[in-house]
Write a structure and sequence with these properties.
By secondary structure, the protein is an alpha+beta fold. The chain contains nine helices and 20 strands. The strands form four sheets. The chain has an eight-stranded mixed β-sheet with strand order 6-7-5-15-16-17-14-18. Strands 9-2-1-13-20-19 form a six-stranded mixed β-sheet, covered by helices on one side. Strand 19 and strand 20 form a beta hairpin.
Length: about 375
């Protein structure tokens, strides 16, 4: 069967691409061998803008995060009704903790040139410094080893697995079709993509979006006509512990320190993470990851030492050599669009990547000019 576009991968970027394409009236086939949100998008933390802590990353990434979160806010107005799924989009303040004076100097806004209010929505600028006595009134279970924190008001959290499912259900209601199959080859003839070969048969389209996370590069290697194409994306394992708080009340704020975090979720569990481990395509939770997260979480929240770890999860985020996503047409294969590589901020950037990829897939790539730094051509 022939479609206007084929999307490979049922994570947040792939489902967002299918959503925007189908919402614009295009026929779409989403090829996913498992199910939507079966991998990283189903196990991520789901905080939006709470990763703000100096030093800031590249200006292009900061702009992308701001634009991505704007799209999240726009989707929150309509997507729950379009899909019938409540993905728990809600405001929740954050605290970036400092354990010593060097961390205070790095985090405290008065000494950080990287802090720019124009990166925040106009109605969410509540950012201030709190000494320990002030922040302990917000969350008394924070360790007394903490000497202060940056308060980030009006931040947002979602359930990323349910958000990804909502994108897909809405796309399906718009006419998109799920193909539960494994991609055997992306077919390129005469320098242009013509479709995809799967273990269930061939699907035809002159536009294919490759949004298979860290597996995107290996998919290209499966076919002679694409094996020469460059897509340097690799897996980075991230693990999360989910604590059962029992009779303990949930935390009213999210906590961040270094590269770690903790937050109570609507499910009743407290999520704590994370790791950044290059361990190939191993998706199994590790003892080393468990101990690293547990020690760090108990340092910030000593009461967790008495709480049960209900479960431990691991996922693989797609990363690139320069830390930027890869979004755009792959040189040497007209109509073949990459949409991957957002790494640990994939939930923030997923809707933006999907919107950009849908534009490239339909020849409406004006917005892609703003993010030409994401183009796969930089690796060609």
């Amino acid at each position: 069967m022939n479609y206007d576009a084929i999307v490979i991968g049922g994570g947040i970027s792939g489902c967002a691409t299918a959503y925007f394409l189908s919402a614009a009236g295009h026929s779409v086939a989403l090829v996913e061998k498992d199910s939507p949100a079966a991998h990283a998008s189903g196990f991520a933390f789901g905080s939006l803008h709470t990763r703000f802590q100096p030093p800031a990353s590249s200006p292009l990434i900061e702009q992308a995060r701001a634009d991505g979160i704007d799209i999240h806010h726009e989707l929150a107005k309509s997507l729950p009704e379009e899909s019938g799924i409540d993905y728990h989009f809600h405001e929740k303040a954050g605290l970036v903790l400092a354990f010593d004076e060097s961390e205070v100097a790095q985090i405290k806004p008065s000494g950080v040139a990287a802090f720019k209010r124009d990166q925040w929505p106009e109605d969410r600028p509540d950012v201030r410094w709190l000494a320990y006595g002030e922040l302990s009134h917000i969350e008394a279970r924070i360790s007394t080893d903490v000497i202060g924190a940056l308060y980030l008001g009006g931040m947002t959290e979602i359930a990323p697995d349910e958000f990804t499912q909502a994108l897909w259900v809405a796309a399906e209601r718009n006419g998109a079709v799920m193909v539960n199959a494994e991609v055997e080859e992306v077919i390129v003839v005469g320098g242009a993509v013509t479709g995809v070969a799967t273990n269930e048969g061939e699907i035809s389209s002159s536009s294919v979006v490759l949004a298979a996370g860290p597996w995107s590069a290996s998919i290209l290697k499966r076919g002679d006509s694409t094996s020469h194409l460059k897509l340097p994306v690799s897996p980075l394992k991230g693990e999360i512990l989910r604590y059962d708080l029992g009779d303990e009340p949930p935390m009213p704020v999210s906590l961040w320190w270094g590269t770690d975090y903790a937050s109570s979720k609507p499910t009743g569990f407290l999520h704590a993470g994370t790791t950044h481990t290059a361990s190939g395509f191993d998706e199994e939770p590790s003892n080393a990851g468990r101990e690293k997260i547990r020690r760090s979480a108990e340092r910030a929240l000593p009461f967790l030492a008495n709480m049960e770890i209900a479960t431990q999860t691991a996922c693989l985020r797609p990363t690139t050599p320069d830390g930027l996503p890869i979004v755009g047409e792959i040189p040497g294969a007209r109509g073949l669009v990459a949409a991957t590589g957002a790494g640990p901020i994939g939930i923030e950037l997923g809707p933006l990547i999907g919107k950009l990829a849908s534009g490239f897939a339909t020849g409406q790539s004006e917005n892609g000019l703003k993010y030409r730094g994401f183009s796969p051509a930089r690796f060609a």
